[in-house]
Amino acid sequence: MIISVHSWNVNGSKYIKEDLNLNKWIQPCKDLKTPDVFFFGLEEVVELKATNIVFNSNSKNIELWKNLLTTNLKEIDKYII
Q1: Half-sphere exposure in the Cβ direction for 80 (13 Å, CA)
Q2: Any bridge partners for residue 42, and if so which?
Q3: Residue 3: what pLDDT?
Q4: Looking at per-residue confidence, does 35 or 54 come out higher?
Q5: CA torsion angle for 66, 79, 21, 29 (degrees, to 10)?
Q6: Which pLDDT does position 24 carry in this prediction?
Q7: CA-CA distance, 80 to 44, in Å (whole number)?
Q8: How far are the Cα atoms of 7, 28, 33, 53 from residue 59, in angstroms, in the given order?
Q9: Higher pLDDT, 5 or 47
């Protein structure tokens, strides 16, 4: 089994393009066998304000990152998120 682990501090960015290509980050070496499992750890997905941390009021960024990862993974192979 091949496992690929990724971590990224996205710095609470609210200026993310919906068509951002993450493939160079997800699979930097295309010559290797495609991983069976991917793990992603994203830090500071929401802007670091007290209201966002306490009330989780910025779920829009979370959905955006989920959609970005899903879209980019589909370009590599069939994965389930």
Answers
A1: 0
A2: 8
A3: 92
A4: 35
A5: 130
A6: 83
A7: 24
A8: 19, 29, 34, 11
A9: 5
Please tell me the distance from the alpha carbon of residue 1 to that of residue 11, in angstroms, as a whole number.
32
Higher pLDDT: 1 or 18? It is 1
43 strand-pairing partners? 9
> In 1-81, at which residue ranges do the beta strands (DSSP E only) sit?
3-9, 37-43
Say which residues have a Cβ less than 8 Å from residue 4's Cβ, sequence separation at least 6.
26, 27, 35, 37, 38, 39
DSSP output for 57-73: --HHHHHHHHHHHHHHH
Spatial neighbors of 41 by CB under 8 A, at least 6 apart, are: 5, 6, 7, 8
Average pLDDT over residues 37-53: 81
Q: CB of 76 within 8 A of CB of 25?
A: no
